What does this fold into?
Amino acid sequence: MNSSVLSSLSANTRTTKRNVALCKQHCTPETYEKVMKSLKKLNRCTATIVITILAILGASLIHFAIKSDSQVNTNQISYSTEKVGHLSENTVWYINNIKYEIDITQFGYSTGAYADGTDFRVYLDDNGNVIDLIPIIKGELTASDQMALCMVIGLFMMCFVPISWAIWVRKSKSKLNPGREWFLFLTWLQKRTPFEYCFTLPEETRPSPIQ
It folds into this structure.
């Protein structure tokens, strides 16, 4: 796969060099300079888009990785039994053969932090002592789920944005298009007749035929 990618990049590089040489051959110095400026601007904009996408994706992954490490989860707790408890007036009650109650403030939760009826994961040691309480927030994604979602969105962006960008710069004739002059030349090169030798941009005055 790597060899095919390298071969494709090498072929694209050779094609670009050949087209640049043809541009110099079929353009006046002024037009050639404009076309080359367009090509350089296109390359810069494309590189900026790719780097921005990768930076956003990388920063998001790092953020969620740090969040996942700092988030208390079952992998960080050495426990014997897990129960589901229910909050009632700042006290979580759960059943472990019999009903037990425990004040959430003992585990760093402030009074009124969660509404009555909120479910909690209750972690017990071998002796049945509570070692931690974790609130179960309905609809809230864990750090791992958020990271997976971020990766899906990032992969979508890496596919959709570059493809959309490539289509737009090839098809658009707007002056906002950084590759406008370059693709105008490529289009002319593909469609020119044997009698057309000199490429001119639409806004340029074509030279008068030789009398």
